[in-house]
Amino acid sequence: MSALLPIVIEPVRPEDLPAVLEIERASHVDPWRESFFVEELERPHALMLVAHHRTDRRRIVGYICVWLVADEVQIFNLAVDPALRRRGIGRRLLLAALQHACQRNARVALLEVRRSNYAAQQLYLSLGFRPCGVRPNYYDGLREPAVLMELEMDRIWRSRWFNGENAKGSEEGSC
Ligand SMILES: CC(C)(COP(=O)(O)OP(=O)(O)OC[C@H]1O[C@@H](n2cnc3c(N)ncnc32)[C@H](O)[C@@H]1OP(=O)(O)O)[C@@H](O)C(=O)NCCC(=O)NCCS
């Protein structure tokens, strides 16, 4: 991995959406339209965080969208500027969202990931997610299966990732 990029993680603002859309289109085979993000901004149970360069609030480098439902957090979207990958942004975004969810009493995190998406699966595995099922032909167009992954954020896991040495650099902003 290259050196960690100095970032701040904060809740998204409407003016961040053009930069978010640019990263979205560069990151996904079937990118979300702008209206999807606008809906996320309005949903009471949705949380969307952006990472921006520490010295420039307008320089968005990644984002994450999750839903907080009962004691679960569902991860729906995560992407990092292709030019800035492997600099710890994806992991810090994910940890920031999971920490926020834990503060709201979430104890289980769930997500779906394309079977061919090795990079994302490695990220999730590195944080303790485990595969827990497959949905055949989940993604339209490519008819690719989704791998379901689950993480139990028990006391030991929370202490490891939010209080221990792994917490260093996990979140540098306020959310
Ligand atoms: C998946 C994604 C968000 C990762 O973001 P990132 O900022 O590059 O990830 P990080 O630098 O935080 O990497 C954390 C860990 O994830 C794993 N990882 C990330 N990218 C990897 C890759 N290309 N190959 C192997 N492992 C990878 C590694 O374990 C890495 O730790 P290390 O660098 O110390 O080895 C990014 O690749 C991306 O935006 N992909 C396109 C969108 C996407 O697939 N989103 C997920 C949809 S489910």
TrEMBL record:
Keyword Phosphoprotein: no
The keyword Protein transport appears for this protein: no
Keywords: Acyltransferase, Cytoplasm, Transferase
N-acetyltransferase domain boundaries: 7-154
GO molecular function: N-acetyltransferase activity
SUPFAM superfamilies xrefs: Acyl-CoA N-acyltransferases (Nat)
Annotated InterPro entries: AcTrfase_RimI/Ard1, Acyl_CoA_acyltransferase, GNAT_dom, YpeA/RimI_acetyltransf
Family: Belongs to the acetyltransferase family. RimI subfamily.
NCBIfam families in the cross-refs: rimI
Protein name per its UniProtKB record: Ribosomal-protein-alanine N-acetyltransferase
Originating organism: Desulfosoma caldarium
